[in-house]
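Hi there, hope your week has been kind to you so far. Thanks so much in advance, here it is:
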Amino acid sequence: MSATADRPQFQIDPAEPARARLSGDWSLAHAMDIPARLRELPDAVDTLDASGIGRIDSAGVMQLLRFARRRGLPPERLRFRADHRALVGVIEDVAGDRPKPRRDYGFVAALARLGFRVHDNASEVVALLSFTGENLAKLWRMLRQPRRIRPVSVVYHMEQVGLDAVPLVALLSYLVGTVIAFLGSTILRDFGAEIYVVELVSIAFLREFAVLLTAIVLAGRTASAFTAQIGAMKAQEEIDALHTLGLDPVDVLVLPRLVALLVMLPLLTFVAMLAGLAGGITVGAFDLGISPQQYVARMYETIQLRHFLVGLSKAPVFAMVIGLIGCLEGLQVKGTAQSVGERTTSSVVQTISLVIVIDALAALWFMEMGW
């Protein structure tokens, strides 16, 4: 058969002007001819009879399906040979331009979406509680069996989590300290009580801002890194390889990161406290006429040790939250790049939200206890 006879063609019987009978080869070899033939079809055609086609591949099926959708032809108006229907079914399932189902905005549908969301959130809470219990049990086992400690991994993550974050934590804390001092002085100046800026900045940073700023910075910086690292390992089946080698992923991947956070977050909090107090001293020296010696002496006379201990006591709790959520989200990656991105975003949102909620509850509890 000649190449011309193999080209895509159609015939229209004058007795049936609405039916186009297709023939020839509708394949990738004639990819340039197929659109031209389809554009030549009259507007009156509402049925495509493809049973006369000799050879057809995915390119031809895709072109015919797109033409049928543009013309608004129902599926029964596009007729293929029996031995071509399996290929057509596969192409229909993977076609990228299938119309998306319309979202139902009714009350019942909204209630169903709310129910699914609540169920998903409840599942996340249960998973986090279960993961927390598992890690606490294995952390206790590691303390009883020191040979399970991986010092090289712990020190590496201490550097990544702690030392690399010192400049950012110190800079943000210093700037926030200056802002609080400026705002406080603006209000207190009207009453001639600028000296109380010392207590304002000191108590605010020792009790709340230092540990909260540090936790938020590490939630965005460290929790996302943990999720991305473990998620990439999950996508590349490295977690399965650990199971095959008889190693526990929690011992190898989670506990070193958790121990590093438990050690470094209190130290970073202390750095944030010093930086915030330095911001207050700077404003006092250049805007309020309070010398650094007077500022430190006033702070020594008025600030109690309990404020420092209250702020520092929250650091291990926030470290557990950041480490557990970051690692858990990484272990829940499904194996695709999209899943890694979704879980990384989820870990940051969950960590920051939970840190703020816990800090608010802790502040209320400490105030009620008179601490």
About this structure: The radius of gyration is 33 Å. The mean pLDDT is 84.
